[in-house]
Amino acid sequence: MSNMLLPKVSRLPVQKERVSKLDIEKYSRMAKKFVEDRDFSNEANEAMRLYNTTMKINRLEMLKSNIGMKMIDGYSDIEKLTDKGF
Questions:
Q1: 47 within 8 A of 34, measured Cβ to Cβ
Q2: Is 78:51 a contact under the CB 8 Å cutoff?
Q3: What angle do CA 28, 32, 37 make, to 5 degrees?
Q4: Among 1, 12, 36, 81, which has the highest number of CB atoms less than 10 A from its own CB?
């Protein structure tokens, strides 16, 4: 648990590594069960932290991909205009 003491930014690679090993569907079912049972044990809290981190990282990766696609689309539009000579 020494990673808990590091600043959030420096922990990101460690979190990404843990997330890559995570079975999303399994944790989704576990998260649902923890919430339904109101399980606040240390194990449940750690599992929920990992699940929440996974969802956040996946959302950020998706946003990053969407931004990349928009940039490519924008460049393509600029290139078309440039080729036509405005």
A1: yes
A2: no
A3: 145
A4: 12
Cβ atoms < 10 Å from Cβ of 72: 10
Q: How far is CA 62 from the centre of its chain?
A: 8
For residue 16, what are the contacts with CB-CB under 8 A and spacing of at least 6? 57
Tell the burial category of 14 from Cβ atoms under 10 Å away from its Cβ (0-12, 13-18, 19+). exposed
Q: 4-19 pLDDT, tens per residue?
A: 443 444 566 666 666 6
One-letter amino acid identity for 57?
I
Structure tokens, 59: 């959302």
**pTM summary value:** 0.52
